Amino acid sequence: MIRRGSGLLQGGGVLVLLCLLAALTVAAALRYGDLEIPFALLGPLLLGVVLLDNRLLAGFSVLVILAVGVEIVLGRPDMTMLVCLGIVVVLALLVLWLCLRGRPIGVTGRRGESMLVDLRDRILAQGQIPSLPASWLVESSLSSAGGSPFAGDFVVATTREHGRLLEVAVVDVSGKGEAAGTRALQLSGAMGGLLGALRPEQFLPAANDYLIQREWDEGFATAVHLSIDLGDGRFEVRSAGHPPAALRHAGSGRWEVLRAEGPVLGLIDDATYDVVHGRLMPGDTLLLYTDGMVEEPRRDIDLGIDAMLGAVESMVRTAWDGMAVRLTASVGSRDDDRALMLVHHR
Question: What keywords tag this UniProt record (predicted)?
Fold first, then answer.
């Protein structure tokens, strides 16, 4: 495994090793004149694509082209060998073009992939549930469109007042999958900061102002915000153009849809958001979710909500634990991102 700062296996050290391999390949071709030897230059080139950043890979591609030139001048190859060498040059030029094309981010191959994975992990880290009293079960689950690791739906959560007050927000950025992933990353960081710094009634207006200031082409999002006192179970729910939260009363086993009104984030200046007050008694459960859980083409959203709540009732016979993951895996549109947060008072 190659680790940061591991001497010769990093940066210039890798380049030196690959250059040595290319030199040995050229020397063998000049010595034996074997038709298959020129293709051995593709080995170091492939390793370079995987291990080197754009700057070093571009330089190595040029060296491979020069090595082929040396082989042609000194080896005097026949026509068949020239065709083989020409294929190597074309591939090296293709790698060089990809390096120059990737200059805006400066990375390629494995390094670029690791950066994207890190971005995804940062989004997921925003939704980690803080440590809570044993009488509370809070779970979240995300599932992206088409199984992509990037999504426009995300969850942020934090506690305040020495752990007594839990605040969470479930957000759906415009777009889906990778197209919305970068906006979701930026917005999740901003919302994570706002959630812990502002009073509950200030959160959605501040998030709305933030989105308006960004002036993105697709600069809108929906969100539902929950603030709950973990001592007595009293809560406040506010919504910004988002599907309504759903509350299950343990005593009756019935669901109540909490329709808090408010405009979508990022469209209207000085927007105001209504609040729904309630209290989670022992055994009660609250669900926050994105539209991917309940919306499908040619189906009314209320029917989707009923279908989701029906699925919950069929699953709750086992246990509430793990319900969020089970629900996102079995309910909703596979062509849209899905996010869900479950808050259960044991």
Answer: Hydrolase, Membrane, Transmembrane, Transmembrane helix
